[in-house]
Amino acid sequence: xxxxxxxxxxxxxxxxxxxxxxxTRRAILSRLATGEASVNELAAPFExxxxxVSKHLKVLERAGLIERDIDKQRRPARLKAExxxxxxxxxxxxxxxxxxxxxxxxxxxxxxxxxxKKGADND
Amino acid sequence: xxxxxTYVLERVFDAPRALVWRxxxxxxxxxxxxxxxxxxxxxxxxxxxxxxxxxxxxxxxxSNYERVEYTEVEPPAxxxxxxxxADADWNIATNPMMADWPRVLLTTVTLEEDDSGxxxxxxxxxxxxxxAAELACFASALEGLDKGWGAGMALLEELLAELxxxxx
Lengths: 123, 168
Hints:
By secondary structure, chain A is mainly α. In chain A, 68% of the residues lie in helices and 7% in strands. Chain A is built from five helices and three strands, in the order E-H-H-H-H-E-E-H. Chain A has helices at 10-20, 23-32, 39-46, 50-62, 81-122, and strands spanning 2-3, 66-68, 77-79. Chain A has a two-stranded antiparallel ribbon. Chain A is rod-shaped. With 168 residues, chain B is α+β, with helices and mostly antiparallel strands. In chain B, helix 1 crosses helix 2. Chain B has helices spanning 17-25, 27-33, 132-146, 149-167, and strands at 7-13, 39-45, 52-59, 62-74, 78-86, 104-113, 119-127. Chain B contains four helices and seven strands. A seven-stranded antiparallel β-sheet of chain B has the order 1-7-6-5-4-3-2. The radius of gyration of chain B is 18 Å and the shape is globular. The interface between A and B is large, with 53 and 51 residues.
């Protein structure tokens, strides 16, 4: 099966794994799993400077794991992974449905061709 | 974002185009390949603009219903239809698995035959008259697949479960 335009890009997946490899970033995701938070709110428990937290947030944002409001002053970060994970897994099922169906179609076409050939030979 | 999210699937069949066309338009052939590991029952198949394909897929004690309305029929090259999940009375329904999944997907099938008698089939899906939420859901799924999340899915789900367990 060839899938065009939306085949997995290994370098993007690398970005996800690299983002998850750091314990501070995992702790930030864990905090965001309970709800959105501003840089200030995120920095407090880690005893980290705001710029250091901002840097981690940029890595998570680039990997597509979180999103941030651009309009609001406090620019809260929120977890993006879960809704996307649900949508992706449904699309995966959709793709698997069609892919298996088209495998069956391949077999059926082969059968029909054989039958036509037999019919022609008997004529 | 002005571009409508589009999902594309391409397949080459070692069969002439006229034969592939028949498998999409004759009920006894369509029911033999459409739907893996289910019993496919074609309740109606009327392949003409405005015509309906009413399809039931049975497995175990369950049934899934789909309602398809054809909008363009150009034998043996092009078939366009509106694809929806349906209830048992064939009314268009919300996807029970994903509330924001587009209720109607505009599905286009094109068939091209090459010199050696092989047929390239191209299937595309785009959300039809979709709400902002439906467009966002479909775009998000495509974007996630694009990032390779399909491959890393199990790992990611595990991690999210772990994170949430930690957060409690």
